[in-house]
# Entry
Amino acid sequence: MKWFGRRAPFPLLTKELVEQAARKRTYVVRVLYALLLFACFFLFFYEELSSAARDPASLLGRGRDIFKFLMLLQFAGIFVFLPAMMSGVLTYEKERDSLSLLFLTGLRPWEIILQKYAGRLIPMFTFLLLALPFLAISYALGGISTDYLCSGVFLLLLTCLQVGAFSLMLSAFCTTTSEAFVASYVLGALFYFALPLLCVLFSLLNMRDIDADPDLLFAFVPPYIFSEAARGAFQGVLARSIPVVVSTAVFLLMARGFLVRRAFVKPRGLTLAVFNRLDAFWFRVNRRVGGIVLIKDRHTLPEKAPITWREVNKRSLGKASHLVRVLCILGIPVALVGAGVLFFGFSRPGREADLLSASLFILWPVAVLALAVPTASTFAAERTNMTLDVLLVTPLAGEEIVRQKARGRGRLAFVMAALILLVVMLEAWAESTPFFSTYVLSSLLSVLIYLPMFTWVSLWIGLRARTPGRATIGTLSVIVLWCVLPFVLASIVALLADMEMDRPPLSYLLLLSPASIIAFTETNEWGLFSTAPLHTVLLNYGWYTAIMMCFRQLCIKNSDRDLGRVAEGRPLARDTQ
# Structure
């Protein structure tokens, strides 16, 4: 593109915006953002809007509450959508081996960074503009000062800059889109909430509150600054935003450094690389103290199930020694927490196992994440590495390839199930729960059904994805929406029908979320259902067993088509010989 005979000043930015405008996914995400925004606004202000139909003057002066709620919704939208949009901006170039072509152009590294940065911020700004009608209504209703309005708009823009710079830094550091996507959310949560969570943990262990200055704990969190903006002028907000501005600049500087240094780093399993380094270190230490080997890795060739053998021996978190290390890394803290609860009273009276319940709510997302991400990208990685054709020319049927791929995650699923059941048994012991109880039965069924179910769901999505990044993002999006949407739907139905959400039949609607039964089991809220607890548990897991079998059948039945052995509904020539 040329302007008056000259090269366009921002060629990479123009290319990014044109490509995004041509993608169907851009408009789908925008519509999804708008639907969530309008649904949440309607959900929380339905009663106020209904009363305004009878008495319009009742809403005068309520604009401040509406504005504050809209700002919090916009902050949540930035934290949810922007990392997904920004995390693959550089890793996608690495996966296509096109980043080297950018270096061959006249663009400097800073130009690449800033134009890529702006190319994903501009669509996010258009998302924020969707709330303008609601902001106009809130401002017209009154109760909003000019300083408060300017503070909200300024902090929204600053949040986009900070979150975008953080995700861009991880995109420059990571080698694959899936790694950058997961790291953006996990490390982002640690960046914003690590210090507050540590204070809460210490207060639980000491059974007393720890006095900590919130201004220091949340100095890098723009929503907290906005919550305090009503107490001062806009100049005070500018002063308190200095740490956010500094962190944004640091992230951009680090992204600039990582762009060049890690431009040609070959993709490799980070977990496997860490374990190999640990193996080398402990091997040297063990050789000096006698050479004791507890678990010896066997380097034999497969007699049966060659694909499962390859998944177990050549992938990260497949070898028994590696899984034992994972079990120790996660199991030792859990055992220490359990010992503290049982023998040292690290809990408050009446809440005998609150730390164990918190551990369980942490372990479940870790288990689902550890299983879903590698399972979803297993076939997409074969396509990217151009090794899928090698699998397809083997005499193995397509359904056997899929079965063996799924079976390769069995060891990791067993380890995560063992950790979850360890917490369950410790909590049952701490609360003197009988071994043959609804709590133990529900927890046991959860690991027996949910872990295989998420494995098959991830595999089904991964069979249809073309790149590991799309497979990972699609799988995690489906799982999150699956867990959250039933609660949103139940809230909307309860509001429209003027019903209590925690009463039948709406309580049964919550069972459409796989996370609900885990929460009900931990809180012992079986009174929400009209049936007996045992019947509710059997109903829930019977439903999810059917879902698991359905996705398993879809993966196996359509395996040849999804793998590329069937063209236009007919087997390829090499399959008919």
Q: What stands out?
A: The longest strand covers residues 2-3.
